[in-house]
Amino acid sequence: MKGKINLKNFHKFEEYARDYCQKHGKTITLVPRKTVSQEEFKDFKCSGFCDGDEMVLATKNPNFYTIFVHEFAHLTQAVERIPMWYESGDIWSALQKGKVSLRQWEDFVKVIAVERDCESRALKLIKKFNITDPEIYAQNANIYLYYYQYVFLTNLWSRRKSLYECAKLRELVPKRLLPADHFSNINMEVMTCFFDYYKK
């Protein structure tokens, strides 16, 4: 589910983001495609990414506006040099090899922690600039964080279908951002929804 975007307010936020990037020597790159991928992990298509110096976004992705806020929030983590940004686990190398072991769970927990902090920052920006419905954004953020648990269980970063269009997940996942420690344990009820959704 997508919340309606207030384009006028988004453009005000975009101006703010570009000024922030200019001040801190960071770059925003917009790519006219539906997906993008990082050079070293080309197998993993996504709607946007941030490496700490640059945020890259696929402008034709249906979630472009909220992804822009999300990736900018990552950029603020790098600018503020928060420890978890530098201590984030490497899950991509294992996924690329198709060999995610139980030992990697700790890395997934670290990645989820970084993403949870990012979503909290993004939610504050969405509220501050009144960009879209914060409840819908928070629910989508929770689904995204749960998705990392599903990826851990399946060894697969699948984007065949949008994870935000599963009606059963909407019934299970709250519209307030769940606390970080909530994601330390795998929620099997939510995982069952993901399995059922992606096997169709």
Describe this structure as you would to a colleague.
By secondary structure, the chain is mainly α. It has one domain. It contains eight helices and three strands. The protein has a three-stranded mixed β-sheet, covered by helices on one side. A hairpin with a 3-residue loop joins strand 2 and strand 3. The protein starts with 6 loop residues before the first helix and ends with a helix.
Coarse morphology: globular
Measured by DSSP, the beta-strand proportion falls in 5-15%
Order of helices and strands: HEEEHHHHHHH
Query: How many strands in all?
Result: 3
Count of structural domains: 1
Mean pLDDT: 91
Query: What is the CA–CA distance across the termini?
Result: 19 Å
**Which class best fits the helix and strand makeup?**
mainly alpha
Low-confidence runs: none
Characterize the main sheet. 3 strands, mixed
Number of alpha- plus pi-helical segments: 8
Strands in their spatial order, largest beta sheet: 1-3-2
Level of helix content? 40-55%
How many whole angstroms does the radius of gyration measure? 16 Å
Please render the helix and strand layout as text.
Layout: H1 7-24, E1 27-31, E2 48-50, E3 54-58, H2 64-79, H3 83-86, H4 92-97, H5 105-129, H6 134-154, H7 167-172, H8 188-199
Parallel strand pairs: 1-3
Antiparallel strand pairs: 2-3
Helix pairs in contact: 1-2, 2-5, 5-6, 6-8
